[in-house]
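Continuing the series of single-chain predictions for the mutant panel. This is the parent chain; the variants come on the following pages.
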Amino acid sequence: MYPQTSTEFMPSVLRTFALSLAFAFLGTMAGVYVPPSLFLPLAIIETVMLIAAFIFRRKKAISYPFLYIFTFVSGITLYPVVAYYLATTGANTVILAFASTTVVFTGIAIYATKSKRNFSFLGGFLLAALLAMVAISIFNLIWPLSSTGMLAYSFIGVMVFSGYVLFDFNMIKRQGVRQEDVPLVALSLYLDFINLFLSILRIFGILSKND
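Parent structure:
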């Protein structure tokens, strides 16, 4: 368990999280210049780095360079998704999705840190829901969901990743953060934000097409 007095590192976590988003943004901008044939290899590298970060976290904390390299690569692999919605529904959809994500993320974060309730019980439910979403996404590759099915899937994603924001901030408040674990905690928050953004973006994208 993290020491109870280590909540002093919360500002460091938030700064690191903000820098992670900045590196992801730079990666997305750089994605314009990346050949299409490289997106799949980069996605594989991103997945391997993510698995390594969480599997080996008990043995060795991840470093700041590892975090920023990961988020930069993540930004590159995010580019095709953003470019698709820019081309099909316009920049307003992407901007609105990002703004909505920021508002939802910030609101839940404030509630989680101010609330006296313990939300640790959500961990098991959220993991089960996340695994179900992964299974559905694999199923979608074989038998694509209808627009209604994808809309429902995206709403579930919003609930699941909003739950993870609530869970992660609540755990930071209750257990604190060791200095060496700041990059890993920031990575968790980054993943919450990006996945929440993608879910909201899909919703706005589907609704824009139906108008």
